[in-house]
Amino acid sequence: MSLDKTSVKNNFIRHIIDEDISNNKNAGRVATRFPPEPNGYLHIGHAKSIVLNFGLAQDYQGTCNLRFDDTNPHKENSEFVDAIKEDVHWLGYDWGERLYFASDYFEKLYQFAVELIEKGKAYVCDLDAEQTRLYRGTLTEPGKESPYRQRSIDENLDLFQRMRKGEFADGERVLRAKIDMASSNMNMRDPTLYRIRHGVVHHQTGISWCIYPMYDFTHPISDALENISHSLCTLEFADHRPLYDWILDNISIACHPQQIEFSRLNLQYTVVSKRKLTKLVEEKVVDGWDDPRMPTIAGLRRRGYTPAAIREFCHRIGITKVENSVEIEMLESAVRDDLNSNAMRRMVVLDPLKVIISNYPEDKTEQLQAANHPQNEAMGKREIYFSKVLYIDRSDFREQANKKYKRLITGGEVRLRNAYVIRCDTVIKDEQGEIVALHCSYDPDTLGKNPQGRKVRGVIHWVCATHCVDITVRLYDRLFTHPSPDDSDDDNLYRSRLNPDSLHILTTCVAEKSLLNSQSGEHFQFEREGYFCRDKDDQNTPVFNRTVTLRDTWAKIEKK
Ligand code: ATP
Ligand code: MG
How crowded is residue 147: how many other Cβ atoms within 10 Å of its Cβ? Predict the structure, then answer.
C-alpha cells in the first residue's frame, strides 16, 4: 500500500463542497483555514484538522490560511506561534502569503461591536461573573434578563469606548450581544463579546488593548474577513453555530462562510487536550513539549514519526461526525508501513554478549557488503566488518532450549545476518555464574550461501567489536496505562494512570560503525529490534529513540 494515496477522500465534507461547487456557491471557490490558538504546541488532533483543511485546499485548487486565534493573551506567546508554524511546515503544508492573526483584526472587530451597539444588538453589562452565571439559567430553566440590558445606545457607546480607554477594572463590565435569554441554546443567552484584561502584554499587539474580543465573536468575523468558504471545526462547536451565524447576519459584512463540524480525534492511551498537555510539561511529568512520549507533532517528530505517516494516519481515520477514540495501533501501523518501505536497515546490539570466533585469525578484518534494504536495491549497500570478536544480543543465546528457540544454543548453529554461520562451542562464565562470553567457530564456506542440507536454527544480528560505536538507545512506551486517561473530571487522576515504564534508557548498546555518520532525525530499522530515529541531543554518544517496535507487541502483552 503506497502512502498518501489511500486517503479516505470520500467524506461528508467533500460531498458538501462538491455540491456547493456544482451550485456555483462562492463562485466555486474553496477557501479554508487552520485556526490554532497559540497557547501550546500542536498535537495529533490538530494534525487531523491540518490535513483536512490544507488537503481540501490542495485537492480543490483552493487556499488554506494559517490564522492564529490569539484573543487570550495571558496564555499565549510567540514561542508557541513559532512552534506551530514549524510543525505545519514539517507536516508538508504551506500557507504561502496567507498568515494571519486574529489580533490583526482588533480594530475592525471593535468597529463591528460598535455597529452591533448602534443597532441595539449589544449592550454593556455590569453584572459580575457570579451574577452573570445565575442570570444565565440552566439547560432546563430559561435565563433572566440583565438589569443593564435596556441601557440606551448612547450610554452603551460611551461605556464601550471607556472600556477601551481603560477606565474600568478587569471584570467590572463586559459587552454582551442582545439575543435571547430564554433561548434553549445557552450560547444564545446574551453571550459576552468583549472582556477587560489589564496588565497583559499581547505577543502581537503589545499593550495597545485592554479589552479583548471573545472567540465566538472573533471567529466568524475573522473567517468572513478572510473570505473563507467552508469553516471547519470540531463537533463541540455545533452549538455555537447559531451564534456564528447570528454575528455575521447582524453586521455589515458580505461574506458568510458555512461552518461545518466534524468529530475530534481522540487517541487511546494518551491525552489530546492542550490544557492537559500543558500540565504534563509544567509538572515535569515529561521532558518538555517535544518529549518523544508526547502526542505533540514535535514529540512525534522526535520519536521518529514521519510527516507521510502522520498524513496517512489522518487519511485512514477519515472524517465523520461520530465521536470515537482511535486505537493507538492505527498510528503505529501507519509509521511502521512508511518506515518499513523507507528506513535503511542497520545492525545494533542492545544488550551485548561477547562472541569469540576461535578459528578466525587474530589480526584479520573482513569488509562485507550488506544491503540497506532487503527489497529495495536502489537503496544501495553499506560496508560492515567481521573479525574475531563480535557482539550478539544476550537474548539471542541460551545454554539449552527446545526447537522453538530459533537462536543460538550451546552446540547449535545460527547464521549471523549478512555473514557466516557460527556454532557455539563453549560458554565462559564469571565467578557468579554469569555468562560473559561465548567461544564459537565459524564456517568460512557459508558467506552468503547455505551449503546444502545445512540446518541452522535461525538468523541473528551482530556487531563487530573492533568496528563499532557505543550508542544510547531510548525505548519508549505509552505514557499512560489507561486507554482513556482523561475520562474523568478529576484533573489529578491522570497521575495514577501514568505508565511507570514509559521510558527505558539503554546505555551499553553497540552499533555498526556506519551509524556514527547518521544525522539527527534520520530513521533506521535496527534489524529484529524496531524502528529508531537519531535524537537531536547527542553531543557525546549518539542517542537513538525507538519510534515503534517491528510488530504490534502490545496486543500480546495485554492478553497475558
Ligand atoms: P485543545 O482542546 O487541545 O486546546 P483547541 O480546539 O482549543 O484544542 P485550537 O488551537 O483552538 O485548539 O485548535 C485549532 C484547530 O484544531 C481547531 O479548528 C480545532 O477544532 C482543531 N482541533 C483541535 N483539537 C482537535 C482534535 N483533537 N481533533 C481534530 N481537530 C482538532
Ligand atoms: Mg480553541
Answer: 12
